[in-house]
Structures are given as structure tokens and as C-alpha cells.
Amino acid sequence: LKKNTIQMNWTLIGNICRSVSECWDSQRGDESSEQPFNFPQICPVQLQHGDKLLMSADETLKSYGIKLLNVSKDNFESCSATGQREDQFLLPHNINEREQVDARWLMPGHRYFIALHEGDTQLCTLGLRLNVTVKTQLCRSSPMLRLCSGNGVCQTGVGESAFHCRCHHKYSGRFCEKFDACLDNPCENKGVCLSNGSTDPHYRTYKCLCPPHFTVNCSEIIGKANCDSICENGTCLQISPASFKCICDTGFSGKHLLF
């Protein structure tokens, strides 16, 4: 199964955010920043564990030469590279072409990266820093199955620690594996819908317990003769294929049966 791929372009004029309200993860449709900030940075992103993250630089920065460093949250906020080690760099060389971030930097949790030029952190203070939230993916029971059984969307929200299934209409269950044909109650005229438990929406997966004299989805009267037999002392008037009432004879009264 193809994993999601998120591409970040490091540029001084493109996707730099300077306040929480400006930060929006266009890949997921969620506001990604969980903490307020008052410094410029590349818009934060949220990833599922297992997603691919690609980094690239515009032509100006390629010629300038930048390297990416993994840092702590405090060093991210202060743009500090104090005590940097070679094994903290995402790549041993400057970013020249589109580069894929190694999976070891994208384990579940919060990850913080800053850009350096020959050890200088000025690029970071201008906004070339990125915080990434990597979340556990809980949208399928097996790698061989489709996300959310193909019946929903794998999504997350601000503050949540994982991606979960948001099921399409009439589907439920942790992986949207359950189909409920009775959710909208297709049985008319106060009929009761009973689901047979089938998960295949292409087959009839329910039956209706109908009031007397109704059939199919409780929408059809069982013949005009039966309609007449309902009214003991009167005439049955069929209003529509799904409704009727009794017109009482002179001297008789009672509740008109109107569904």
C-alpha cells in the first residue's frame, strides 16, 4: 500500500507563518500547532507514523547551502544549535535536491528541525524551522487492509495523539467495518427496521416489521379489499399508495386510521 508523502519546500517567502492563526496544515486540513508561539516558522505539519516526508530547498537556498538539524523544543524556540552533534543532522550534506527524511527522525511524538548555514542559526530566526507532530495510525487492523475499510477517512484533530477513522454515513466501528442499513429507518408508517448484520450494502440487509395491512417497506397497503376490511362501519378511502382513512357511516364514529 502506498504511504502518504508530505513534501516541504524550504523558502524564505513561501510558507513562513508568524502567528498561530496563520499556521494551517494544507495536507490534512487541521490546524497543526498545539502551542501558541510568537516567532516565524514554517507551517507545522501532522503526519501518520509511516508517512514519508520530503525536504527540498528553492534555488537561492541551494546555492546558499543549508543543513537540517534535529533539536529539542527549547532549542527550536530559541534557534539554538548549542552542543550540536553530527548525528543530529538529518542529512550529512547540504540539501541540493529533493531529499527524503529518514524514518528514524519520524517516530511518534514531536520532532523539531532547524536550518543552519555553516553552523549559523540566522536562517532559523528568519523562519526556516519546522515542527512536526508524528501520530500513531489507528485506521486499519492489518497492513493488508484498506484504511478505514474503504468506508471512511483517516483523520486526526488538534490535541489528539493518533489518527482515527471518521466513517461515512451508515458505517460504524473502529475501522468503519460495520454497515447499518437501519440508521435512517427505511421502514415507513411507523414500521420497525431490523438489520440482519450484513456488511455488504449492495444486498438487502434489513427487513421491516410493518403495522397491519402494510407490506414491502411498510409503504404499500395490502390491497384495496383489505383496506375496506379495516373500517368496520364505514368506507376506506385510500389517500395515496401509503395512506388511507376511514369514512364512518351515519351514526358511527371512531378514530380514523390515518398513517
What portion of residues is helical?
Answer: under 10%
Give the distance, in angstroms, between the N- and C-terminal Cα atoms.
Answer: 52 Å
Largest sheet entry: 6 strands, mixed
* Cα radius of gyration in angstroms: 31 Å
- What's the shape? rod-shaped
- What would you give as the CATH superfamily of the largest domain? Cupredoxins -  blue copper proteins
Q: From the structure provided, what is the oligomeric state, counting identical versus distinct chains?
A: single chain
Find the structural class using helix and strand composition: mainly beta
How many helical stretches? 4
What is the third-level CATH name, the topology of the largest domain? Immunoglobulin-like
GO biological process, one term: heterophilic cell-cell adhesion via plasma membrane cell adhesion molecules
Domain EGF-like: 135-177, 178-219, 223-258
Organism: Neolamprologus brichardi (Fairy cichlid)
Disulfide bonds: 148-165, 167-176
